[in-house]
């Protein structure tokens, strides 16, 4: 750990680390003539190369380096690997969190992560993972679920549904209510996986503020729901919060699971991965799609964020349920 911190601090300070002290004249050496900092007439930093050509320092390259070091630190120190995520998505989320915390640079955020600031660390994880969902917030998704649940789960004795990188407790509650309406809840198990222990603890104790009920009821009606959403909840004695009724909540199994590093852990009749996949870079996306393929039962349903490419080696395993919608039924 100490060598990791030394390397990161040295890189941020612009000095050679103990692992990169090169001989004089080599890149990184103490007397290297390759690049020497100077100032332009206007005061902007300029680097002069060994050939004498000056190039203006690019602030964006510093931010990219800071981001690389932050992601590497998060992986090396805590085991969470975001290095294969889409860089533009990660940059946007990290910069938003930096501004929210009132920090001047990504390096300042990294310093807090490295020096055991648990609050900053858990806040960063929540920011980088899937954006939390509201109940019934996507009418098209709910329509696809209603269609798929009936087609794919009724024939299974004990169906299992995997919410991969679950977008919060409200996504799981939405699915539980839909299963109840399809008369599938008593025999269907929902596996809702999240990436960190802190996110798991939050999901296990979550409740619904009653002040949000009117907005969620509107979502419910807009997505085709009938009746009152509150009928599926028990309200606290003080009338301020509600939790999903026990017979529905008991069908949800929460677990910590990392899509980037963990292996298949069960066979499922339905896998919902469409909210997690948009953040993944090409190599990581390929890895996770293979994981889903390894975990999906014959004739199961797979929900993705975009259609499979015809050249994807897995594409011949699946048939689209509806044109223009990336929801698939396994056929091979």
TrEMBL record:
Pfam families listed in its UniProt record: CheR
Matches recorded under Gene3D superfamilies: Vaccinia Virus protein VP39
Single GO MF annotation: S-adenosylmethionine-dependent methyltransferase activity
Region (Disordered): 15-55
Domain CheR-type methyltransferase per the UniProt entry, residue ranges: 55-304
Lineage: superkingdom: Bacteria
Entry-linked PANTHER family: CHEMOTAXIS PROTEIN (PTHR24422:SF8), CHEMOTAXIS PROTEIN METHYLTRANSFERASE (PTHR24422)
Protein name per the record: Chemotaxis protein
Organism: Duganella rivi
